[in-house]
Amino acid sequence: MLLRALFQRPAPVSAADGQVGASYRLDRIDLDHVRRYNAAFGFPGDAIPLTFLYLLAQRAQLATMLARPIPFRIPGLIHVENRLAMHGPVFLDAPLALTTTLQLPPAAPNGALHCVLETRAFDGERLVFSCDSTYLIQRGSRAGRAAAPQPDTPSGQALGGWTVASDAGRRYAALSGDWNPIHLWPWTARLMGMRTPIIHGAHTLATACSLLQAESGQEPVSVWCRFRQPVPLGANVALFAGLAEDRFTALCNGRVAIEGGSSATPAPSPAAVAHPAAE
């Protein structure tokens, strides 16, 4: 998939008008993969954490972008927002049908372009989990931005922090399968227009959810987050529980890196993406 993504050429916009969609089948979830993921982030036991499901959704999302004409390149995409929810129990040996649609919203007022990938996983006719991921395709104009933004002031209770190891991008890539060059080495990040390599947003989210779970003693079954600032490899991150019970914020270098909310209560089912007929 990595090689195909590196050499895939963008299609003309007209070839990707409207929604792009594809469906795939996952025969089973690998218990050893779950255990390695839990060990990496400190999740207890062999239970499937909510954030692990993003790895399954991301594979389906990448496969969808590779299988259909899209008017942008996949390497260099920046994860800016995500919503993830369990809608029922997830079983290791139950096959899952993963259906993904890709949408291209109109450009933002500053010219920024995004794509939105919506994935739904079904066990038979039962919706098991959903994942909506928003990626930045093209940065907007910097006109009017403050040259030196003031540091953000966190609110709520400090829950602890962590240091992102210099090789964390490569180790998470090996765990997740996401080998986006912006996360690996300084030279690969610069090739993609980044000044320094940054950690995957899903890595920051998983670390935050692990700390939140350890603090509350409850396993989150839904989470949403906005990735506001990139987290460079080697940086320190501090996590805060917001004033609202389900809110959290992570700061890096004095700026909000991610903000979001989580819940131990099952989320209502999202707008339905049609479940494919059994293949």
List keywords for this structure.
ten-stranded antiparallel β-sheet; alpha+beta; single chain; Thiol Ester Dehydrase, Chain A
Taking pLDDT < 50 over at least 5 consecutive residues as the criterion, the unreliable ranges are: 272-279
Quote the CATH topology.
Thiol Ester Dehydrase, Chain A
Number of H/I helices: 6
| Topology pattern, helix = H, strand = E | HEHHEEEEEHHHEEEE
Largest beta-sheet characterization:
10 strands, antiparallel
The rounded distance between the terminal residues' Cα atoms is: 23 Å
Instruction: Work out the count of structural domains.
Output: 1
CATH class: Alpha Beta
In the CATH hierarchy, what is the architecture at level 2? Roll
Strand content: 25-35%
| Spatial shape | globular
The number of strands is 10
What oligomeric state is this? single chain
CATH fourth-tier homologous superfamily: Hotdog Thioesterase
Structural class of the helix and strand makeup? alpha+beta
What is the arithmetic mean of pLDDT?
Answer: 85
Strand order of the largest sheet: 1-3-4-5-2-7-10-9-8-6
Rg of Cα set? 18 Å
Polypeptide structure, described:
With 279 residues, this protein is of the alpha+beta class. The chain has a single domain, classed as Thiol Ester Dehydrase, Chain A (Roll), CATH 3.10.129. Helix content is 23%, strand content 29%. It contains 6 helices and 10 strands; from the N terminus they run H-E-H-H-E-E-E-E-E-H-H-H-E-E-E-E. Strands 1-3-4-5-2-7-10-9-8-6 form a 10-stranded antiparallel β-sheet, covered by helices on one side. A hairpin with a 2-residue loop joins strand 9 and strand 10. The longest helix has 16 residues. The radius of gyration is 18 Å and the shape is globular. The C terminus is likely disordered.
